Amino acid sequence: MLDLISTFFSFRRFKPNQGIYARRLTAFGVFIIFASGAYKFFVMSPVLPFINADSQQMAVGISTIVIALFGTWFAFRLVNWNTFANFLISVEGEMAKVSWPSWPELYSSTVVVLTVFLILAAMIFIFDIAWMHIFKLIRIIP
Length: 142
What we know:
This protein folds into two domains: about 1-100, no CATH class; about 100-140. It is about 75% helix and about 0% strand. The protein contains five helices and no strands. It has helices spanning about 1-10, 20-45, 55-80, 80-95, 105-135. The mean pLDDT is about 85.
């Protein structure tokens, strides 16, 4: 935990040329979370009766900007934290080793999965109806 705190206040980038895509996409995702939170705060901020409207709008606007800037800095520092950066570098390395299916293989696999899903859903529906009639016949349910 102390490592994370010391990394948070550092300007150093950890292995800047490795795992570029995984780190950028992760930082972007973290920033989107903070930006959506800042937007939600901006839209849903409560009305405080003891502050006039102009001061309140300015306070909410500044708070929103501070939340977004903190999210940007947090995302940048998170992907440069040694432990997390090494994980993301490893993830990108492993994703390069994956053998991705071609579009025809993906299409045929999708058709098989959806067909099996529909058959199982129909079977469960039929069993449900059958058990419902059996339970009504022996008067377990009215």
